[in-house]
Amino acid sequence: MDVIYTDNNATTRVADAVVEEMLPFFGQMYGNPSSMYTFGDQVGRRIRQARQRVAKLINADPDEIVFTSCGTESDNAAINAAITTFPEKKRIITTAVEHPAIKSLFAWLGQKKGYDVVVVPVDKKGRLDTKLLYDSMSENTAVISVMWANNETGVIFPIEEIAARARKKNILFHTDAVQAAGKIPIDVKATEVDMLSLSGHKIHAPKGVAALYVKRGFKFPAFLIGGHQENGRRGGTENTAAIIGLGKACELAKDNLAQVNTQVRVLRDHLEARLLSEIPATSVNGDRNNRLPNTLSIGFDAVEGESILMLMDRKGICASSGSACTSGSLDPSHVLMAMEVPFKSAHGTIRFSLSHYNTRAEMDTIVETLVPAIDRLRQMSPFWKDGKMV
Amino acid sequence: MWDYTDKVKEHFLNPRNVGELEGANAVGETGSLNCGDALKLFLHVNENERIVDASFMTFGCASAVASSSALTEIIKGMTLDEAAKVTNDDISDYLGGLPKEKMHCSVMGQSALKKAIADFRGVQILAKPGDMVCECFDVTDLEIIDAVKTNGLETTEDVTNYLKAGGGCGKCLDRIEEVVEKAKATEEQ
Predict the structure, then answer these.
(1) ipTM entry
(2) Interhelix angle for B173-188 vs B156-163, to 10°?
(3) Residues A16-253, CATH architecture
């Protein structure tokens, strides 16, 4: 059975060109990039090239890029750097819809380290309450962390404006751009962002490699303390092949940016339009005018997400549900809850996230699978009768 | 992905006895849209108090559908007295087991069955005895104590897996822990 992969906000296929770029660095060019001889230094050169390629994707300078092991490490290292630099400042600000890498860290800092954590809410379309955010920017604030784009709904936040306000108040600003990088243009020279996280496996590089952008001028204290690697900002022998793969993936992402915003957007819109017109009582979550071009979060009233996923799985379709139906967390995702998406559609929310590998025929197969699947689950549902919610 | 048995998958993909039952003379409902799962059970009971037919409508995950389907198969042909003895473990066993995080699906089946039997007999289910612990899922301390003793539960997490208590807002998790500790202590005496 062919797989129809529409879960690219979870992870992506490693691009063939990325694999090819990485292969020599396992069995042949395995030297330590820090070594003094040519056999090691030839790897060091390729890491420098990777650093340039990553920097170019977001218009940074190469020395502003720190390689890490994952998006979570980038986020943790950034927040750690901020609170280590300003130990006397006890307020930290974030949003209600962050990835767990920020959400759980901030909750931990609040509960265990006594920080005053401000969590800025969103409205029903997932848009940030910027007024509350700006009002909470106090002198006592160590760091603000706001994601560039949301992983579930794709809603994009006004990072340039938030960063400018933070700079005016002299507050360090971090953004988790793991979902935004490679999907929308990012220019760190045109914004006042101090730190930015991006992750390899969301942009067709392998898992286990990521980067943190640190604006020049910020004396970044290491999170992983060890050797001199990454200019003393992150100890540990480099994950050479993966870093080189990330460099290639960033180069490809820059080249493919236009395609994601045209071809992929058209596919997403096609899928969305067909689902909305062919399945009654269906609604899109998030601000449709301001979201990532590849993401669709769509809720089907009166049915439950896991059941939908299992019926799609039979046809090889991969997507995510907006609710984790486990007894430990029966609630729909914190993102949908923060947006006050009604339970009737939140439990039946599915996230499709596309890439340039998807085709129009795949979108049609998804629709043709979902129409009978939703109908069947509704026939079974006590909340559905005669074509509508009861 | 959940570790579902083939039987759970099969009952989810080909559920038995789905839909409203014509001629039903007893109905039991449990769960809600907000909880993320709900079951409506229909019974046709004859003059000898024997269940001649049963059907269900379920909103929920694959194991909720499979548990409902299994329940109707188990109880068809039983007398109400026999059906009253069916437990959530019987439903789970019928399906070759459920992941422990999904045990509440079988509890939901048992609960709907109790309500349907009470409905047939015209018995009003009175307010539950005991003190309310979990308001999200309407679970009392006595129910938790009973579940701890009957199913040998050890932790708060076990209670959530069986009864859903604490799985909503989570406000009552500390209270559940107290009740569990108390129940285990009395059991040891």
Answers:
(1) 0.88
(2) 100
(3) 3-Layer(aba) Sandwich (3.40)
